[in-house]
Amino acid sequence: MGFRPHLKIGLVALSVLTAAATFSVGGRVAWAAATLIDVFQDWSAFKDTEKGKLVCTAGSVAVKSEGKYTSRGDVLIQVTHRQADKTVGVVSIQAGYTYKSGSEVTVTIGGQTFKLFTDAGHAWAFDDKGDKALVAAMKGGADMIVKGTSSRDTLTTDTFSLNGFTAAYTAISQACGIK
Predict the structure, then answer these.
(1) All domains of the chain, ordered by start, with CATH?
(2) How many whole angstroms separate alpha carbon 174 and alpha carbon 172?
(3) Is the Cα dihedral 173, 43, 33, 96 positive or negative?
(4) From the CB of residue 129, how many other CB atoms can be counted at a distance below 10 Å?
(5) Number of other residues whose CB lies within 10 A of the CB of residue 152
(6) Which residues have C-beta within 8 Å of that of residue 159, sequence separation ≥ 6?
(7) By the 8 A CB rule, do 117 and 147 touch?
(8) 45, 64, 86, 94: which could form a disulfide with 168 (CB 3.0–4.6 Å)?
(9) CB atoms < 10 A from the CB of 40, how many?
(10) Does 31 have pLDDT greater than 80?
(11) Confidence class of residue 152 from pLDDT cuts 50, 70 and 90?
């Protein structure tokens, strides 16, 4: 599994922050402590501070989830800029369950397919190049299909609308001073 060195420190903090601060309100993502920038169709844009630096996040919830599971938490996607870490466009998918150890997630946007590594209940691109490719595909796509396997070997398929993603990404980029 290729773990991104610059994410090692932030992974646990982000997981805790995400679990504690994100929730779904009427099919939209909300961050409890963050300031809402705006809502763009199916995507919301937020900004917050961490260690005195801006964190800007665009997020959305799955519009459709399939699989033979009995219970599952919120299924979210977020794309984050962190000034303190100098990271731009980091894509994270929260499954609402713990992924099978060592498994990968498959993301399909249009005719493009991407592989993401998993850690507990999140999936991440393997590197900055993977994040950039995902963000570019998301800007040009209509929807995104995410397939993963839970620790109980349950295959899930989640669909995210990409309507409003480009506007939300532009808003977080402007808020965090990303050109």
Answers:
(1) 5-175 (2.60.40.1880)
(2) 5
(3) negative
(4) 9
(5) 11
(6) 62, 63, 64, 65, 143, 144, 145, 146
(7) no
(8) 45
(9) 19
(10) no
(11) very high
